[in-house]
């Protein structure tokens, strides 16, 4: 019999709504799993066991009286430790923020609670969501990185210690750890999910988003999280949730072949330096998309593409320096080596260089919008290879940062294993505010392949 902790988010939510499973029973199963595996995985910065138990009892009482708060009623969720949580420490993986207790929830956390989620705890992040590693380990191989910066969220999901999690991406920090840990990570369109109450790394590149174990679960979380927020002006131009086709509804129809879906395979960049096993899994995944009815075609990236990637680094470093400059001048020694280098580099970037980088960004966004007028989805590897061995690096975001730079939606879905058993991911990206299309393609691929059913050998 399947243990409650092993259920998908959607299956667990359905079992609770139908009163085949209580919120307390689900939580007890998850907490038991945490007791067994967390000492080895180290995914959690802090757990809220007693608070979660109280909330599970409250939600159980509401259910007994016929009240369901929303689609996440009774579901345990992990929250990356850069999202503010009222009354609960948010340390951002840093000594500098240790002991900081915000007075309010991030908008994303508020929306989770309103939908009935149980906030189980704060998952480890790399320092300030940058490149200095967290303590978290990869559940598939404990001597390998889980990726970053959403390290703990990816590891906790893969290890079956929660049913969904919040992550954030500035370069590759949702897609990369999800790929390394064999789960699903969705980086929404910039502006789809509010950044309010999320500690920034680079304001114009930061994307909060969901991480889950299945594509349908990612769609469900997106629907809870998405929508305009008066506290984040970037969301005001986003279509409200009521004006776009429900992602979950689209996925329900994904058992049909993807006939007519135009899948683009980029001519360069996304296979530079790729590991042979990752390359084989990527080619096989593209073949699977074709077999499912997609029209696979080669596409030529704009000539400004590589210049855009250089511009990403300029913007990333300059904005990170601006975020941290005051604290850095007071407490430079308390910063990790990698983030310190980013800040120092950013402080030396002249204002005209930053503005020029933003101009290049605007040009490339226009060129990529044009490319996607007759291509629905771009398919690429999610990373140059599996999770690297060792815990001093979080791996390369090189294949993910283009879509963070553009602000276009992207996700990863598991697409294979290496000979040694490490997960590999397929990255799908699409037009702004068209998450539905990439979710539909990913769900169809997921349904036709075995990877979603596999769990790490813990």
Care to describe what's here?
The protein is α/β, with parallel strands linked by helices. It folds into two domains: 41-261 and 271-276 and 283-299 and 373-453, Amidase signature (AS) enzymes (Alpha-Beta Complex), CATH 3.90.1300.10; 305-361, no CATH class. Helix content is 39%, strand content 13%. The chain contains 14 helices and eleven strands. The chain has an eleven-stranded mixed sheet, with helices on both faces. Strand 2 (76-80), helix 4 and strand 3 form a beta-alpha-beta unit. Helix 10 packs across helix 11. The chain is globular, with a radius of gyration of 20 Å.
Keywords:
458 residues; eleven-stranded mixed beta sheet; single chain; alpha/beta; globular; 13% strand; 14 helices; Amidase signature (AS) enzymes
What does the overall shape look like?
globular
Strand order of the largest sheet: 1-3-2-4-6-5-10-11-9-7-8
Number of helices: 14
Average of the residue pLDDT scores: 96
Main beta sheet strand tally, sense and closure: 11 strands, mixed
CATH class of the largest domain: Alpha Beta
Low-confidence stretches: none
Order of helices and strands: HHEHEHEHEHEEHHEHEHHHEHEEH
State Rg.
20 Å
Q: Into which percentage range does the β-strand content fall?
A: 5-15%
Number of domains: 2
Going by CATH, the homologous superfamily of the largest domain would be: Amidase signature (AS) domain
The residue fraction in helices comes out at 25-40%
How many E strands? 11
Distance between the termini: 18 Å
Question: According to CATH, what is the topology of the largest domain?
Answer: Amidase signature (AS) enzymes
Q: Structural class from helices and strands? A: alpha/beta
CATH architecture of the largest domain: Alpha-Beta Complex
């Amino acid at each position: 019999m399947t243990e409650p902790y092993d259920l998908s988010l959607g299956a667990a939510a359905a079992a609770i709504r139908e009163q085949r499973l209580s919120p307390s029973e689900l939580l007890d199963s998850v907490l038991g799993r945490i007791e067994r595996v967390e000492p080895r995985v180290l995914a959690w910065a802090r757990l809220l066991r007693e608070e979660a138990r109280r909330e599970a009892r409250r939600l159980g009482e509401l259910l007994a009286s016929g009240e369901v708060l929303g689609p996440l009623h009774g579901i345990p969720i992990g929250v990356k430790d850069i999202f503010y949580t009222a009354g609960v420490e948010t340390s951002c993986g840093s000594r500098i923020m240790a002991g900081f207790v915000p007075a309010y929830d991030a908008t994303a956390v508020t929306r989770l609670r309103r939908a009935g989620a149980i906030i189980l705890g704060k998952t480890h992040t790399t320092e300030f969501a940058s490149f200095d590693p967290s303590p978290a380990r990869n559940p598939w191989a404990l001597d390998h990185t889980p990726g970053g910066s959403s390290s703990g969220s990816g590891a906790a999901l893969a290890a079956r210690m929660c049913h969904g999690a919040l992550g954030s991406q500035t370069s590759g920090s949702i897609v990369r750890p999800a790929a390394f840990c064999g789960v699903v990570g969705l980086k929404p369109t910039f502006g789809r999910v509010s950044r309010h109450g999320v500690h920034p790394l680079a304001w114009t590149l930061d994307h909060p988003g969901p991480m889950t174990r299945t594509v349908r679960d990612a769609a469900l979380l997106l629907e809870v999280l998405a929508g305009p927020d008066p506290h984040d002006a970037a969301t005001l131009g986003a279509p409200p949730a009521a004006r776009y086709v429900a992602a979950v509804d689209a996925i329900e129809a994904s058992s049909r072949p993807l006939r007519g879906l135009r899948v683009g395979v980029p001519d360069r960049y996304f296979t530079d330096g790729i590991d042979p096993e990752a390359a084989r899994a990527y080619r096989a995944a593209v073949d699977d998309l074709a077999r499912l009815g997609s029209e696979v075609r080669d596409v030529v990236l704009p000539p400004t593409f590589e210049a855009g990637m250089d511009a990403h680094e300029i913007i990333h470093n300059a904005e990170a320096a601006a975020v941290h400059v005051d604290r850095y001048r007071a407490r430079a020694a308390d910063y990790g080596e990698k983030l310190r280098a980013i800040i120092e580099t950013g402080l030396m970037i002249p204002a005209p260089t930053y503005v020029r980088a933003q101009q290049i960004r605007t040009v490339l966004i226009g060129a990529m919008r044009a490319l996607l007028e007759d291509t629905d989805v771009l398919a690429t590897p999610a990373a140059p290879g599996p999770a690297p061995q060792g815990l001093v690096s979080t791996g390369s975001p090189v294949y993910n940062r283009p879509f963070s730079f553009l602000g276009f939606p992207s996700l990863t879905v598991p697409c294979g294993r290496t000979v040694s058993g490490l997960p590999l991911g397929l990255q799908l990206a699409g037009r702004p505010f068209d998450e539905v299309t990439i979710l539909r393609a990913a769900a169809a691929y997921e349904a036709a392949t075995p990877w979603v059913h596999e769990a790490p050998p813990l």
